[in-house]
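thread from #wetlab-drylab

HS: before we spend reagent money on co-crystallization trials with inosinic acid, can we at least see a predicted complex? here's what I'd submit
DV: go for it
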Amino acid sequence: MILVFASNNEHKIKEINSLLGDSFKLLSLHDININEDIPEEEHQLEGNALSKARFVYNASRRDVFADDTGLEIAALNGLPGVHSARFAGENKDSSANIEKVFSMLGDTMKREARFRTVIALILDKKEYLFEGIVTGTIARTKKGTKGFGYDPIFVPDGKICTFAEMDLAEKNTVSHRARAFEKLKEFLLKH
Ligand code: IMP
């Protein structure tokens, strides 16, 4: 099955390719000649994922999926959430984003958080949503050098180390993205 993945992020495309397996051929936005930035202006992950998928569908008329992920911290009423990438500014600086989380949380004991990934799929002109969640806590200091984004401060429930201390295979056994893509794969294989 051939699907467009509404992304040009090589790292992500590789990761999703390995999660979905050989039954699928993924095309990137470059592959179908979409080179502009797709607007992400919605206030929820679902809205953003859907608007990216619709944008690509309208431009290409191909089956497509798009994803959007956010870190939702309970003590911050769900922030950074949909603003995760640009929490501390337009340049998407992960260290600055983490510092902003630390300064907003202070020394509170309430450190529950979750990562949530939403995938929007347009297949045979119909729209579907899939969700993956991993719950955990925000650490008091950064730990680990692997991964990206908020990985150095997120400890998933049931583990004692942060995502940035795990290799990708271990992260994928519990991660929000792996769970969401597992649901997508199951759906596509049955379709
Ligand atoms: P995206 O929707 O996958 O581009 O994710 C938006 C932002 O959420 C990223 O820029 C990261 O800051 C954060 N993020 C998403 N997934 C992860 C993850 O697996 N670990 C850490 N941070 C993540």
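DV: The chain is about 30% helix and 25% strand.
HS: ok that's useful, forwarding to the group
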